[in-house]
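Quick one: structure for this chain?
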Amino acid sequence: MKTILITGASSGIGAATALLYAQNGFTVFAGGRNQQRLNELSVQHENITTFSCDLTNKENIKNITIAFPPLDILLLNAGGCEYIDDAVNFDGDLFARVITDNLISIGYCLDVWLKLIKPNGQLAITSSCASFLPLPRAEAYGASKAALNYLAKTLAIDLTPQKINVSVINPGFVETQLTNKNTFSMPCIITSDSAAQYIFKGLSRKKTEINFPKRFTYSLKLLALLPFFIWKSLANKMVKGQ
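Got it. Here's what it folds into:
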């Protein structure tokens, strides 16, 4: 039986992906901060073992690691989203919080868990299609996700001798507790279950980049090819039209 460790599994994409892997015969270690939701997840399938962990605390990660066997897949999925609503009065504390939750925590996880991955195993990092081009109010969130894309791709190069395959996952809008707070239009939004299917299929094929939904992510990649001054004008018009 293959083994996968998934962070950010209290709800949303992480919970749906944990359940899908369990249903496909994997031993699943599913981590998150919300113990109540983790308990609800663990009773859905006998293959799921849950653990509560603060990923911004490296010692906390180390303390629970003794319970884990060698891993076939390590999926670092946890993260948060907050927006900069007033760029002139830039909120440095918010920026630091988002960077810590979305980026620094990944470094701590890699520090402790990367060595658990078996030869020919897989590392997957959930980023976002927000990393494709600069979006309004996303100074903190977008910066953290762009850094994750760079991190994943450099690891893909440096882990080749160890035969560890690295994938970066770039979802579009997915129905989760995070996106439920958004007050703007979310084109091509999909369910967490659909997102889990994309991830499962992409990792099964050992794809370097897993982008979904296709129509939305392709559109953003095309827009990213525009000269920045054109995209800047379009983005400003979008903000004024809200």
